[in-house]
């Protein structure tokens, strides 16, 4: 399937409309928010998400939430990572896989037309990362995009030997170094969230010491629709969350501007993992 040029033009028009609307919202939101309850954190949603296996701890004690400020970095202590552990308006939007090049392209367009900050968990064997490398590079260099490791071929790590786990992570590490000039260490996401102490140790042996799970997600591991994606986004995008979406489903393309607008309306600040965590 290909995305028609008309669709891309339509998306560009919608984005420019949203951006000009955003200026107005920027003026109105402080007034509107004053009378509106803070977006609810779906504290139980993590359990309903695509079951991170291996004993993912829900809740975070990286640092007492009340001690953080919006620009302060947080120490990594409670692993696997499944929330930011901050008490402000920060949210990490993390994007996995990259199975469909056109959907990676839609995220690139969002980067080009907004101030969004994203962390991509790259599955190295998917071609779209090569196709869009030149357009992604400036954002990687400026720090608005962080690249993390989502293995080479998206296997269930629990089914692999330690040696195979290392190979899966190292192939994508080499791809990211060769193509973008950056290492993804220490952040990686086990496919399907499947991990245990053994897989963690195998990854940590080569410097991948931080398995990253998620607080909530866009219910987009199977074919979905723009309206279902937006409904999930309304639930998932709240302060302190690590939100998981995928660059796989075509439905994602049309809804990204609406999700960005939702983030603006809630006065959330998108951050990469490097924006938040001190990892060395
Ligand atoms: Zn994945």
UniProtKB/TrEMBL annotation:
Polar residues compositional bias, start-end: 61-75
Listed GO MF terms: hydrolase activity, acting on carbon-nitrogen (but not peptide) bonds; metal ion binding
Bias (Low complexity) ranges: 44-60
Domain NodB homology: residue ranges: 89-271
Keyword Metal-binding in annotation: yes
Signal sequence, start to end: none
Domain of life from the UniProt record: Bacteria
Listed GO biological process terms: carbohydrate metabolic process
Family matches, as PANTHER family: CHITIN DEACETYLASE 1-RELATED (PTHR10587:SF133), GLYCOSYL TRANSFERASE-RELATED (PTHR10587)
Protein name: Peptidoglycan/xylan/chitin deacetylase (PgdA/CDA1 family)
Species assigned in the record: Lysinibacter cavernae
